[in-house]
Write a structure and sequence with these properties.
It is a single chain. The protein is built from 9 helices and 12 strands. By secondary structure, the protein is α/β, with parallel strands linked by helices. The protein has one domain: NAD(P)-binding Rossmann-like Domain (Rossmann fold), CATH 3.40.50.720. Helix 3 links the parallel strand 3 and strand 4. Helix 1 crosses helix 6 and helix 3 packs parallel to helix 4. The radius of gyration is 18 Å and the shape is globular. The two termini are 31 Å apart.
């Protein structure tokens, strides 16, 4: 049995981990921004000193992609300084770290799935700070697994799925971007993966890509949501240029999962199957 600190305790991934933790023998401590500022190295070290965890799962992140363009320092405090402080505390107290990163470290110019060996080239502040956070972890801690994921959604929090469900009931017609390609990823699947890797107590450290299987555009994702949820709303596919945002998005960010599947002998669900599971969970809430 291990003791595990989970940062970003109120976020959708941590909430999914909390749900999965109920059937686990491990002791989980969920920490949010109100109880710990991970940008404060002294506070982070004190927490580790008091709790003596075996693992830390860093789900804390500044994820407001567009807002980050005008708040680069705020984004860096959490995504870079916070990641560094956690890595240093893990090294000091002999703790293994799982650090969650993103497909936004890539520029999206490829047309085939990104591997862990592809050179990152983020397009905006969010991606830059997440990449710098990865480097801060690697520079300060050998015993870490960095998990890059993409298009995360769940029955909790604010995400594309929840937004589409709301707008689908409010509007008769909805325009959705159809020229960005990635993979919708159910946070519940990622939560299960992290706990499974903790159970394996692996020493296969490094960077790994994890998302659900398959690929889709945001339009495809919205279409599937409406079909499964039986929502009558006309969807109109539009180009990214017709929906300008402060931050540029990668046009293609499908992640290659061959490395993580081979290293840990795992099966990865198809994104539509996981979407059905998540919508069922929402219906039962």
């Amino acid at each position: 049995m291990s003791k595990i600190i989970v940062t970003g305790g109120n976020g959708q991934l941590a909430t999914c981990i909390k749900k999965e933790s109920k059937s686990s023998d491990h002791t989980f401590i969920f920490i949010d921004g109100n109880t710990l500022d991970i940008a404060d190295g002294h506070s982070v070290n004190s927490l580790f000193e008091n709790e003596r965890p075996d693992f830390c799962i860093n789900c804390a992140a500044y994820t407001a992609v567009d807002k980050a363009e005008s708040e680069p320092d705020k984004a860096a405090l959490v995504n870079v300084d916070g990641a560094r402080n956690l890595a240093m505390a893990c090294r000091e107290h002999n703790v293994k770290l799982f650090h969650i990163s993103t497909d936004f470290v890539f520029d999206g110019r490829k047309k085939t799935p990104y591997t862990e060996e592809d050179v990152p080239n983020p397009l905006g502040v969010y991606g830059c700070t997440k990449l710098a956070g990865e480097k801060a972890v690697i520079d300060n801690l050998k015993e870490s697994i960095i998990l890059r994921t993409a298009w995360l959604y769940s029955a909790q929090g604010t995400n594309f799925l929840k937004t589409m469900l709301r707008l689908g009931h409010e509007r008769e017609v909805l325009s959705v971007v159809s020229d960005q390609i990635g993979t919708p990823t159910y946070a519940g699947d990622l939560a299960k993966l992290v706990i499974a890797l903790i159970n394996k107590n692996t020493v296969k450290y490094g960077i790994y890509h994890y998302s659900n299987s398959g690929s889709a555009t945001w339009y495809d994702f919205a279409l599937a949501i409406f079909e499964i949820a039986n929502i009558k709303c006309d969807l109109v596919p539009i180009k990214t240029s017709e929906y300008p945002t402060a931050a540029k998005r990668p046009g293609y960010s499908v992640l290659d999962k061959a490395k993580i599947k081979a290293a840990f002998q795992i099966q990865i669900p198809e994104w539509k199957d996981s979407l059905i599971e998540c919508l069922s969970e929402l219906k039962n809430q």
